[in-house]
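User: ok so my PI wants both of these folded by tonight, can you help

Assistant: No problem, let's get them done. Here's the first:
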Amino acid sequence: MEVPCVRVRPQSGETTRSALAALDLVDEDHEITVADGWLYVPVSDGEAATAEGYEVVAHDVPARAGQQMPADVLGWEPSYERIGDVAILDEDDADRARAVADAIVESDLPVESVVNRASKVKGELRVRDWDVLAGDTRTVHREYGFEYALDLATVYFSPRLATERHRVAEQVAADERAFDMFAGVGPFVIPFAARGATCVGTDLNEAAVAFLRENAERNGVADRVTAIAGDVREVATEYTDWADRLVMNLPHSADAFLDTAVALADDDCVLHYYDIQHDEEPFGPGERAIRAAAEPTYSVTVETRHVVRSYAPHEENVCLDVRLTR
């Protein structure tokens, strides 16, 4: 079947495979293949590999020799995604979900648990209900060389934002002070700290903050990470004029926290503001909200207008990278 592959000349194959493995991007379910003078290394995230500068193409490569896939059991290709060793289904029919779960368990995939979405993301803690079809909801997700322990039943986490998180982390300098206002289990904070930044992460979800602390230890950056459970609007009073970099990844309601972001910002601060808007004007509402909150105390310069992904028909998940200068 066709899967995203990094295409390189064979003489660069092992160097490329090792580099991709270090980023946790090698697709272990499919074979590395040589054809027409090119070597094809299957990757688990084509966008992430492209962001790293590799040429990514769709190529027909075989499943790993001797490996039984869910489609081999079912006779048709099921749809699922993975976070760590948990396979996530989105099936409305309980019998079909059960059949897919049994096939995944019977297959040779490196999966310990299978869950089916039982609700949308809900509440201010942004968690879902799950039907657990095998195993449980706790796992360790690996992304760009970092490990994140989490429990899907108690925290929100999206592997689809891996490339976006890496894009932002690549901008961080060692002497920065970075504040993630809705930090979750730490997928922004951890790589920021690994680059030498001093970081604060807050979240209303106490379970997420507990995982953030665990993940800071797990990734060797606990000395540069302060994790605080609570409303960022209350925490901010202790960090007025502190941040060189702010992350606001709460796209449905980040605008309600812009006054707090302005209070946190130091004299020169980069703000990563996430929003979901209609595709006719995806950036305008967020930019206007930022200017209304920051001006005239700060001059506002939009450095990047970036579409992260399509969120729904005619709706875009976007990011504004904005520099606030007092």
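One down. Here's the second:
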Amino acid sequence: MFPEVRTFENFKHLHAGMLSDVKRKSLPEIAKAVGLHDAQPLQNFLTNSPWSVVALRDRRLELTLLMLEGRSFKLVIDETGDKKKGKHTDYVARQYIGNLGKVDNGIVSVNAYGVLGDLTFPLIFLIYKPRKRLEVGGVYKTKPQLAVEIIETLLKIGFNLDLVLADSLYGESPTFIAVLSKYEKHYLLAIRSNHREFSLPDQEAKYGVWQEFERKFSDGKSEKRYIQQINESESRLITYWRITTDANNLPKNQTWYVQTDLKSDMAVKSGNLYGFRNWVEYAFKQGKNELGWADFRLTNYQ
């Protein structure tokens, strides 16, 4: 992967530093943590060394595929954003930043993670490039389009996805859903409470009875949740569900609407399956901050 030993050593030092307890993952701090005299070797590694991050990613994915040994897993798609100062980092712009819950100056990426039992593993991420920050000749792609690109790449490599989980940005995207249907991949996607299917004038949504289930967490604990099926037509291949912590008051931040092509007798299973997305989202936020994702400033995208 690397043209010389020195390049590999710097690669190793950089990753050891990111895994260390250094509070701010800047190159000078990482250099101190791994025993280098200064950060120049790490700087050269990131800016001048002739290695390919794409080739490195592909090798990592090959090893991940070998580890799975053909087993299927759940794929979680989620976008994430972090605040960044100035405009020197490529593709930073004023946009919605999920970590902050508001529009601010920052960078956003679309991420794909696999879930196999209690194991969560990273697959691919792609940086979202706002229209106003596109370089000459650049092609604008929406976040759902980036997610489609990720899924098609994973399928081409040979990964076996048995279920795709994503939030309402993707659940409200006909393009994203069409691609999942094309490849015959099951999905469980969040939708908005005012989803178009609920507001058609010639249809009336039929709300089923609330079913109580135990939301099981990765640490073995569980909490009561409630799930209710919403159907406009019994002949529909897609079913809609409402999941909440309180069936009487439907708290806004604790009530989710989802759509799925899984069979309609999947009430309890659907509730726990969708919980994986929230679990990964929370864990990813902690993990990326620990590894310094929120700190980085790279003025060259490659």
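The chain is about 35% helix and 25% strand. The longest strand covers residues 102-116. Good luck tonight!
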